[in-house]
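hey can u check if this looks right to u? its 257 residues, i copy pasted from the old doc so theres a chance i mangled smth
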Amino acid sequence: MSVHREEILGDFKLVEYVPFKLTRPSYGVVALPDAGLVGVIAAWHIIKALGLKEVGGIDSYSYLPPAIVVSNKELRMPVRIFAGDDILLIYCEFTLPIHGMAQLSRILLTYFERKGVEYLLLMSGLPIQNRFEVERLRSYYVATSSRASELVKGVEVLPFENGYLVGPYALLIKDAMSFRLDTLMLLTESFLEFPDPEASARNLELLSKVINKPIDVKELLEQAELIRIRARDTMKDVVRNLAQMKKGFEYSPPLQL
């Protein structure tokens, strides 16, 4: 594992394998295990579709399992960093305890700030109880600023007007607001407990318009059943973690006072 740069940040170690710079406007994408693995599935498709290169990784003896990724005979850290042109993407298939996620969130946002990321883009599922019966999935967005809202101008997506966001992405959004990083989150109706490639594909269609880059989701939809099978074990761990975070509150709108 060749190392260009390494630093210790709290209980985490961040390594860059190769130096890189982003063009503008620049986007940071974070993929974390959440409802239906929607963001994780979508991010892996982005990496392949846009030809992003693996440029770094993050590890933690305190909060991540004792694991190392082997990719094309190369040894990589469990949280993987990819980049290409104007996109910096963080990819993680492991669930972290809430204290670890809170620390990682601040580290990622500090890293994005240093790399000149202008927008944070997040994709997740919005669990619905009748997902088995729904064929046409609805999508929503959450924006932390008017500048972030401009990204979906002309895009067929509804504002998420009332409700709760719960889970790792909620932590990221709260911290992004503190960092004053313009953030847009895309939410598509999904399963909570089962991998949902169809919801991932819908989010990708929207993201493609946001970043003005073509992302073909045909292959993703064709491989949907295979993805569901491969992701079953990962989903089991995710469900246990989401239960601790009270995921599912998105069902319940807050009191309108």
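Residues 5-248 form a domain with the Rossmann fold fold (CATH 3.40.50.10900).
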